[in-house]
Amino acid sequence: MKVTVIGAGVMGPGIAQIWLMGGHEVVLTDLVQKALEEGKESIYNSLQTMKAMDIIKNDAELYMSKLEISTSLEQAVKAAKLVIEVVPERMDIKQQLYGQLDKLCEKDAIIVSNTSSLPLPEIFPNFRTGKFFVAHFFNPPQILPLVELVRNETTETEAVEWLRKELELCGKTPIVVNGFIKGFLVNRMQLAMTREALNLLDQGVVSAEDLDKTTMAAVGFKSAWQGIFNTMDFVGLDTVAFVNNIIFPDLCNDTSVPKIVTDKVSEGKLGIKTGEGFYKYDQGKREEVTQKRLTVLLEQLKLWNKYKPCDV
Ligand SMILES: NC(=O)c1ccc[n+]([C@@H]2O[C@H](COP(=O)([O-])OP(=O)(O)OC[C@H]3O[C@@H](n4cnc5c(N)ncnc54)[C@H](O)[C@@H]3O)[C@@H](O)[C@H]2O)c1
Question: Which of 99, 100, 201, 215 could be 220's S-S partner, Cβ–Cβ 3.0 to 4.6 Å?
């Protein structure tokens, strides 16, 4: 099958890599030639690392032989069965692109957007109705298994189920969300915990470092292997009910951005990209944490592929 990925920024190359690893012909397209060359290089490096770690069977070169890069949208989408839009989260850019895609894509092509927040099939109800929906990948997409497929009532069930199957064949773990809810699922779950963490930090009962240890050494350590409902079954639902009753009324339910975040934003402390957020990062530290994050995620992927926790 021919798969076209439009946009070679943070997410596009990793998404292209998923389909290459699934044995497909992939075209990565962008307006900027340099982005395409850098994207191609990052795919090659990632495949080489995965091969060295025994995560993939074949040499990087074999997968790369099925990758084409092109600045011509027309050439890129011609004969493509699946088109994945990964351009910036800006309405004007997406709108202009969909105008072109409507003219250029095959009539039966499935077109999906990696948007993080925009209800695109509702915004463009006449664009490829039924065959256009959201497929939301997670960064880095070639490693994180989950893909949220977000459909609405006009989406063709066969189109969603087809993509679900194809993603599974590529080793991914797709889930289907029926209806456009803000933040889809993962961001909602994550933000519920983030809100409580910021609230506790603001109260001064704990440091950011120790709060991070709660997710890394307890919640997160276990949650790649045991989901929320499965965990409750292990705890015992009588205990769950008892504890909910005591703790729920005490949890934060603020709806505004916490001051601790707005203060950092106004001071220009935006995180790793500016060298300081909740932690400080000089150039060496930035490279060290980025590399360590990648290595640990790849080790986790090996365990994931071995034990397949979502199959149980
Ligand atoms: N960055 C993330 O972690 C992340 C995670 C999940 C979803 N997303 C979503 O994925 C999409 C892309 O995000 P990103 O961070 O990769 O963006 P990005 O800005 O890093 O990359 C976008 C790329 O699209 C190219 N582009 C712009 N207009 C184009 C056009 N008309 N045709 C072809 N290429 C074009 C740009 O040159 C750029 O290389 C957004 O909708 C975003 O919300 C991002």
Answer: 215
